[in-house]
Amino acid sequence: MKKIETSFHAELTDFRRASYYGLFLRHRRALQILFLVLGAALLYYIGARINLGTPNPLVFFLAAAYLVWGLLLFAGAEKEIRRYIKSPDSLIGCEYRVLLEDHRIRIEIPEKKVRESFNLHSLHCCFELASMFLIYTTPQNVYLLPKRALEAEEIEALREELVSSLGERFSSRFVKKGKR
């Protein structure tokens, strides 16, 4: 892999996207049920309005309960995001320097005196989103690498390196199934 060196400032939108992606990963099944129940309740309501049957209030109560749960879940995520922004440990707005070479990734955040280096094979996992890479060094520690900080050929080279280094621990909708 050729050397990739970049620097960027972490933005709130990057952190918010990563937080919501994590939320959807952790609560995938429950959120699928939420959307299914809300969609079914909407269709049931439409059917009741055009006199296809008598409405059952239990359906609307169940849909309302799921809706409240979903709103509380998203409100909790926003609360955590706001708490992180105010935290002295927040990395939002800090300059990141990232160097990828020889199957290693080095991440520096000079303002916070962070300087870490990892073998790509030893990363916990990595996710590629439409706008960034989420690089998990441990299940609890994640670094963001926005695609805006990389050239198109660097994104492709990084993707190929992550596929070969991490295998099934790299998830991307941009990688063809047969390439793994």
Structure write-up:
By secondary structure, the protein is α+β, with helices and mostly antiparallel strands. The protein is built from four helices and eight strands. The strands form two sheets. The chain has a four-stranded antiparallel beta sheet, with no helix packed on it. It has a four-stranded mixed beta sheet with strand order 7-6-5-8, with helices on both faces. The longest helix has 30 residues, at 57-86.
Question: Short summary of the structure?
Answer:
This protein has 180 residues and is an alpha+beta fold. The chain has 4 helices and 8 strands.
The arrangement of helices and strands along the chain is EHHHEEEEEEHE
- Straight-line distance between termini: 17 Å
**Strand ordering within the main sheet:** 1-2-3-4
* Overall geometry: elongated
Cα gyration radius (Å): 21 Å
Percent in helix: 40-55%
Please state the structural category. Answer: alpha+beta
Uncertain segments of ≥5 residues (pLDDT<50)?
Answer: none
